[in-house]
Specification:
Layout lengths: L2 E3 L8 H6 L6 E4 L3 E6 L2 E8 L2 E5 L3 H7 L6 H8 L3 H9 L10 H9 L6 H15 L2 E4 L2 E4 L4 H5 L14 H11 L3 H10 L2 H8 L7 H10 L11 H10 L12 H15 L3 H13 L1
Antiparallel strand pairs: 1-5, 2-3, 3-4, 4-5, 6-7
């Protein structure tokens, strides 16, 4: 089985990366092996010290997907600006942002609104099982994430059994708008952050937080700083005491937090956001 030897001077934690809430289609099974569906591949991977053992994809895919070609030490040094973020970094050192397929990431975060991680995972799995292609791997059945045309082929009611609630109309509407996922993703990737964010927010069900998650996790726009209830509480408790952590999050509060994060953490504030989030919930 193929192996990758990790550089000693570049930390990586597979467990922290896959369990921090940024992805929804990975499961840890079989004595520390992780299984996940990425694109049309089922990947099986585990980490033992500085060694990754894997199957289902070439080494170049593993390196790219897990951002192993990124200088994490330089990024962490740039965002390590205060004692609180320092503690979060030390707790989760080696967490890396994965490079997610843009279309799947977009639908995932549309399905994430007002939900917990197990519920999001169930919704994404239901969409894949209903509309995706079947893959058999090591005696188990998996499903690829469907293209927009596959989702809309049965009409709006085709999504009903996926139990998406009010998000059903958002998923159908966005699938109808994005006729070609590859061309759409290429167009978004060419835009600067602010323009890409505006474009994403024209899609049904994509608000400021979902747009920032998509830009951060799928398009590597690291100046994105998604703000949810957890991040708002962290910012109010540790950085912006004038903010209330208990009232509904307004667009003005969101913009205030984002502006502060860009100033305080710099161009890689999106990495800081994930370390803050992981430090809070893990």
């Amino acid at each position: 089985m193929p192996c990758l030897t990790l550089r000693h001077d570049q930390p990586f934690s597979l467990d922290a990366t896959l369990s921090c809430g940024q992805v929804f289609r990975w499961n840890r099974m079989d004595d520390s092996w992780w299984y996940g569906v990425v694109g049309d591949r089922v990947i099986r991977i585990r980490q033992d010290g500085n060694r990754l053992t894997y199957e289902g994809a070439p080494a170049s895919f593993i390196v790219h997907y897990f951002s192993l070609d990124t200088d994490l030490v330089a990024i962490l040094n740039s965002i390590d600006t205060d004692p609180f973020i320092h503690a979060c970094i030390e707790k989760n050192r080696g967490l890396r942002l994965v490079r997610q397929p843009p279309w799947e990431c977009t639908i995932s975060y549309i399905c994430s609104t007002n939900s917990n991680i197990p519920t999001i995972r169930r919704r994404i799995a239901s969409i894949a099982e209903k509309f995706g292609k079947r893959i058999e791997f090591r005696g188990r059945v998996y499903h690829t994430f469907p293209e927009p045309s596959s989702i809309i082929c049965e009409g709006h009611s085709g999504l009903t059994e996926c139990r998406l609630g009010y998000r059903q109309s958002y998923v159908f509407g966005t699938s109808s708008s994005v006729t070609n996922a590859k061309d759409w993703a290429n167009a978004i990737s060419r835009l600067p952050y602010a323009d890409a964010r505006k474009e994403l927010m024209t899609l049904e069900g994509v608000g400021p937080k979902a747009a920032d998650c998509i830009l951060l996790f799928a398009f590597q726009k690291y100046e994105a700083f998604p703000v949810d209830v957890w991040i708002r509480r962290i910012m109010a408790e540790h950085y912006l005491p004038e903010l209330s952590a208990d009232t509904p999050l307004t667009n003005r509060d969101y913009d205030t937090i984002h502006r502060f994060a860009r100033r305080h953490f710099g161009n890689y504030c999106g990495w800081a956001q994930e370390y803050l989030y992981a430090g809070r919930v893990r």
